[in-house]
Amino acid sequence: MKTYSTIEIKSVLDPPIKLNFIEYINCPSCDIEIDVKNNIVNNNSFITCENCEHIMRYRVVKIQ
Ligand SMILES: [Zn+2]
Predict the structure, then answer these.
(1) What total number of domains does the chain contain?
(2) How remote is the CA of residue 25 from the centroid of ligand 1, in Å?
């Protein structure tokens, strides 16, 4: 069974955003470290944990 969560990315820029300020995200389901450095993300992007298949969807929040 697939599970989902959301990763909130705060940025002053409009998406798409290059993740050059984050190296790893810990999977909320199995806690494995997922390498996300330099991934390009927008509000439709997601990553899938290779270990447990948990799906993490990005949500880009613009800050001033
Ligand atoms: Zn996982």
Answers:
(1) 1
(2) 10
Q: Are 48 and 55 in contact (CB under 8 A)?
A: yes
pTM over 0.85: yes
Rounded Cα gap, residues 38 and 20, in angstroms: 5
Cα of 4 from ligand 1 centre, angstroms: 10
Show the tokens assigned to 36.
Answer: 């996300």
Tens digit of each residue's pLDDT (9 = 90 or more) over 22-60? 999 999 999 999 999 999 999 989 999 999 999 999 999
Residue range(s) defining the domain that contains residue 11? 4-62
Residue 28 CA to residue 12 CA, distance in Å, equals: 25
- Beta bridge partners of residue 64, listed in sequence order: none
Instruction: Give, as residue ranges, everything with CB less than 5 Å from ion ligand 1.
Output: 27, 29-30, 49, 51-52, 54
